[in-house]
């Protein structure tokens, strides 16, 4: 990642560009670099901000999607931001949903890609063979349609993370919180425009999940990315960016 991480007043984030603000929310195992192609595409016309969600820093007894939503609220107030476009992948989408239900006045529109909040089939409740590099490699490859997207660098990062006892406990705590916090009854409250950009071959949050989101979110559109798994902005960045561009043009430039 070529952008420096800014650290101030307890917040860590990346920022580039000027204009209407896009806030990108990473997933549970997500790296900031997952969004690199999105930043490159939009930084010349938009202000793009990626806060680092404090999954490894918040007190473990309070760790959960609601705690991350509260953190996002503090961050947006600190940056004096409102009417932002929230763009979230996986857990990041879930945090965006929880935040939008509580603080819709801060959000102009929402983009979800492979979002949890209804159902997910991720690592499960444990990492039974986390010491095995091949096992972790297989699990990371499961995230994508094309296993080659799971680069050695990406697998190395995940392997290192899940073999850090403190971190793996937090990951499992966070994953259980996400599974428990089902959003089905709350989605009708979200009346702002929502774009669902979904991998047609997502095995973590399968296509049926996207269809249910589309059905339950009253002002939503559903866009499919073919031959794509759980992270379209990584696996097919050009297609993801094209859908995002069209959506932003519709909601921001009318």
From TrEMBL:
**Could you tell me which SUPFAM superfamilies the record lists for this protein?**
alpha/beta-Hydrolases
Judging by the UniProt lineage, the source's domain of life is Bacteria
Q: Which residues form the AB hydrolase-1 domain?
A: 21-237
Q: Know the name of this protein?
A: Pimeloyl-ACP methyl ester carboxylesterase
Q: Which InterPro entries match?
A: AB_hydrolase_1, AB_hydrolase_fold, AB_hydrolase_sf
Q: Which Pfam families match?
A: Abhydrolase_1 (PF00561)
Q: Name one GO cellular component term.
A: membrane
């Amino acid at each position: 990642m070529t952008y420096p991480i800014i650290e101030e007043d307890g917040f860590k984030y990346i920022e580039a560009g000027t204009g209407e603000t896009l806030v990108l929310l990473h997933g549970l195992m997500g790296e900031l670099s997952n969004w690199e192609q999105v930043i490159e595409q939009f930084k010349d016309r938009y202000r793009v901000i990626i806060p680092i969600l404090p999954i490894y820093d918040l007190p473990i007894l309070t760790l959960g999607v609601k705690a991350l939503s509260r953190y996002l609220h503090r961050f947006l107030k600190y940056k004096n931001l409102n009417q932002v476009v929230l763009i979230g992948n996986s857990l990041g989408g879930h945090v965006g949903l929880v935040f939008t239900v509580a603080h819709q006045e801060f959000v102009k529109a929402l983009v979800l890609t492979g979002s949890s909040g209804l159902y997910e089939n991720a690592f499960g409740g444990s990492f039974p063979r986390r010491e095995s590099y091949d096992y972790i490699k297989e699990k990371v490859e499961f995230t994508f349609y094309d296993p080659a997207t799971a680069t050695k660098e990406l697998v190395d990062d995940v392997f290192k993370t899940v073999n850090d006892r403190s971190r793996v406990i937090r990951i499992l705590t966070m994953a259980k919180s996400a599974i428990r916090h089902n959003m089905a009854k709350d989605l009708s409250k979200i009346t702002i425009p929502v774009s669902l950009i979904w991998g047609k071959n997502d095995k973590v949050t399968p296509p049926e999940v996207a269809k249910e989101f589309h059905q339950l979110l009253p002002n939503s559109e559903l866009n499919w990315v073919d031959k794509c798994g759980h992270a379209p902005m990584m696996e097919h960045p050009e297609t993801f960016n094209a859908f995002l561009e069209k959506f932003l043009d519709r909601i921001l430039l009318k």
